[in-house]
Amino acid sequence: MHRVYCVGRNYAEHAKEMGHSGREPPFFFLKPADTVVPVADGETGAIDYPPLTADLHHEVELVVAIGEGGRDIDAADAARHVWGYAIGLDMTRRDLQGEMKKQGRPWCIGKAFEQSAPIGPIHPKASTGLLTRGAITLAVNGQPRQRGDLGDLIWSVDETIAAISRAWVLQPGDLIFTGTPAGVGAVVRGDVMDAAIEGLGTLRVAVR
Ligand code: MN
After folding, report:
1. 46 near 206, Cβ under 8 Å?
2. Residue 169 C-alpha to ligand 1 middle, in angstroms?
């Protein structure tokens, strides 16, 4: 694994619930690679409830793993840079992120904390094919919370790869969290999250 890139507000309904509308240019933040918590198929992963927050949010996302790096990649050529896909959770200390936004300060404290990026196994593109549509959902303790479709990404995976590669040099082992659909909300200790993406199975993570 190299870097973890994340796309902000990449589904219209989620942008709306965060108080924004319209197609803004894509924007990015990063999480340190050691925030990733790998969770095997069929296993219940676990993350510790982080400090300093009273509003830890789940964000289910399609994660793209880069196989071939590059810079200034054309969107039309981006698919060949994809090695595979995983289900990921962009866990967020929403109260801290909100405070930083209000003050015009960096989001790091809201996004880039220990265990903030649980992900399931990476499925090779060779077996899944290109993922451009399909349901993406999250339930907490069996109750549906988030629901969207990969086809509703504002900036497609190809466009996202192109945009990131204009700003940074993509490397094999980079992961891209592509954004979350509407329905984000809080979890507390003892909750169990089931994140699912059509074609990638289910990622189960408990908060302890
Ligand atoms: Mn996110």
Report:
1. yes
2. 21
For residue range 17-53, list pLDDT tens digits in order: 988 877 788 999 999 999 999 999 999 999 999 999 9
Of the candidate ranges 15-29, 85-99, 110-124, 163-177, the one whose mean pLDDT is the lowest: 15-29
How much distance in Å is there from the Cα of 36 to the middle of ligand 1? 14
When computed from its CA atoms, the radius of gyration of the chain, rounded to whole angstroms, is 16
Nearest partner of 119 among 31, 189, 28, judged by Cα: 31
Q: Tell me the CA–centroid distance for residue 95 and ligand 1, in Å.
A: 15
Residues 203/33, Cβ–Cβ less than 8 Å = no
Domains of the chain: 4-207 (3.90.850.10)
Q: How far is the CA of 124 from the centre of ligand 1 (A)?
A: 22
Q: What distance in Å separates the CA atoms of residue 180 and residue 153, rounded to the nearest whole number?
A: 9
